Amino acid sequence: MKKSVLILCAALSLSACSLFPPPYKVPVTQGNLVTKEQLAQLQVGMSESQVTYLLGNPMLKDTFKPNEWHYLYTTRYATADTKQSDASDLVLIFNDGVLADIKNN
């Protein structure tokens, strides 16, 4: 009798966790939020200061490739209301301080 009550209590207590809804997870966004308007204004031939004024500081400036700027954007636990970036991986390549190439992955 004691064993069956103990087993019944253990089974009910373990299954009770699945009755609750999953916990709320806060959406976490990291990086540069780049909009379509900003992408439309971005043009080859702009100076580094103009690009910084338009998009802000890049997330990554590679030490070995100082002429490549990476604008990254990631989201975890996104909901329908979470803002999304139009460019999740934007790479800008400069030659002598002038924007030479734009790669939007």
UniProtKB/TrEMBL annotation:
Domain Outer membrane protein assembly factor BamE residue range list:
31-101
**Subunit-structure text:** Part of the Bam complex.
Q: Provide the alphabetized UniProt keywords.
A: Cell outer membrane, Lipoprotein, Membrane, Palmitate, Signal
Q: Has the keyword Protein biosynthesis been applied to this entry? A: no
Gene3D superfamilies annotated for this entry?
3.30.1450.10
Membrane topology listed for this record: Lipid-anchor
Give any GO molecular function from the UniProt entry. protein-macromolecule adaptor activity
Its principal location? membrane
What is the protein's species of origin? Marinomonas profundimaris
* Record localization: Cell outer membrane
Q: Which gene encodes it?
A: bamE
Family statement: Belongs to the BamE family.
Look up keyword Membrane and say if it applies.
yes
Which Gene Ontology terms describe the biological processes this protein takes part in?
Answer: Gram-negative-bacterium-type cell outer membrane assembly; protein insertion into membrane
Matching entries from InterPro entries are given as: BamE, BamE-like, BamE_dom
Q: Which residues does UniProt assign to the signal peptide? A: 1-18
* Protein name per the record: Outer membrane protein assembly factor BamE
Q: Which Pfam families match?
A: BamE
The protein's job, in short, is: Part of the outer membrane protein assembly complex, which is involved in assembly and insertion of beta-barrel proteins into the outer membrane.
A Gene Ontology cellular component where this protein is annotated is: Bam protein complex
Q: Which domain of life is it from?
A: Bacteria
